[in-house]
Sequence to fold (416 residues):
Amino acid sequence: MRASNQTKSKNRGSAYELLRLVREEPAHQTKDIFAGQISQQAQRMRADIERVARRPFNILITGETGTGKTQIARQIHRLSVRASNPLIELNCANLPEHLVEAELFGHRKGAFTGADHDRKGLFEEADGGILFLDEIGDVPLTVQNRLLKVIDEKQIKRLGTNHYQFFDVQIVAATSRNLAKMIQEGEFREDLYCRLAVLTVEASPLRYRREDIPAIVDRFLMQVANSISESANRRDRFRIDKEALVLLCEFDYPGNIRSLRNLVYELTSYVEGMESISIELVEFALAKLRSQIGDHGTTTSEVSKMSDPLGCNQPSIPSVGVVRSGEAYLFLHSIAREGDIVLPLELCVLRDGETFKQWTARAKRCSIDATRVATGGTIQTVAKRLGLTFGSLKGHLHRAKHTQNEALFDWQQESD
Fold:
């Protein structure tokens, strides 16, 4: 029995050490997780992240599994005023109910069998920073009651003590489940939802932003090359044929970005040296993936209907349009010279009922935002690249915002 308790205590300690690794991430790191991505959804997510990161309120991130909710939470931390303080992550789906108090609130030595030393809880670990609760929808009701009390009172008590202490923690929660439906069925507390969803960010499925896949693939290829460089002390560079990339843009990934990442990682394992990833290799890998998930020719529209049977979300993109979109993206980059900025393909479409004035405002928005991504993201650098003064650019933004009646850019106030 003693050995079993020691093992459990050791396992809990290992879990804490893994969590503490998160806080060691450099606070000054400001990488753009949407670098090179041109879709309207990517631009919207980037703007949402920048919007909520400037506020001290709790945040709820929603979206299908594998859409990058954890990366969004980390980006929020990087851009927030709490960036120099800890970011502590906890996957609630893997949180045993009987250990929730010990994990979240900590304990005193001797509080229970196996508690051989004092231990800080995650709220204490995250004091001054952000506590990221992933898969909050999997938390049992009993745990929800305790979380609600802690959020309301902003104080905790370690197990085995009678001393309460206050904490300063911003909570960012994420879920792939339908919390509104869970509330109706009595599986999730509505009052807890209201306290978590003060600000919200929605992560878009990959099938709604296929034009971002080339940039995402490129990022994963660079990640593999960097990993090999660090472990094997050699510099590799992976390339992919144009036709193979178009095929990747056409596929419906059941696990969204996570599935695409795993697929790209596997593809790199088949090539050596200067050999590029061919369309034949991609076809082989996709056939293998289909057999694993039991999908024998699922189309984009069929996947969309399964995830949205009432058609409430965005319209699906026909497969032929996907191929043309991917080919057009590659073509534009093939003719672009060094220093050129490739604009979003959506500018080629005049929407139903859209006036010329509204299209012009949308074109300004997309052009300015594309320049913003390419030049580093400040209003001064965008103005310089477009040959405008600071005041003139702000005037264009203001007029476009008024015409489209939406928040185009929520940049932080910058001085002249």
Remarks:
- The longest helix spans residues 213-232.
- The chain has three domains: 2-204, 207-307, 340-404.
- The chain has 17 helices and nine strands.
